[in-house]
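User: Hi! I'm working on a homework problem where we have to compare a predicted structure to a textbook description. Could you give me the structure for the chain below?
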Amino acid sequence: MEKEEELMNNQEVLEILRKESNEFRHLEEEHRTLDAKLSALEGKNFLTAEDELEIKAMKKQKLIRKDRMAKMIREFKKPEIINRGG
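Assistant: Happy to help. Predicted structure tokens:
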């Protein structure tokens, strides 16, 4: 049950970030675009050395975007720290 609640919570966070964060929407769109380009390139019957380098570069760019989105999700979910001391 806890996993289901966590999953629902993540879905809610995603929806909020999509609505409120231009950066998050932009990262998500770039990630989808890179994914589509990768799929097309990897679907080729023969890959040149240039294709292989392009695939590696795109995978790295996808990972950078995914990591940034994950960081934004973690930061959003962090409870605010209230400074109670003077």
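For your comparison, note the following. The chain has one domain: 2-76. The mean pLDDT is 87. Good luck with the assignment!
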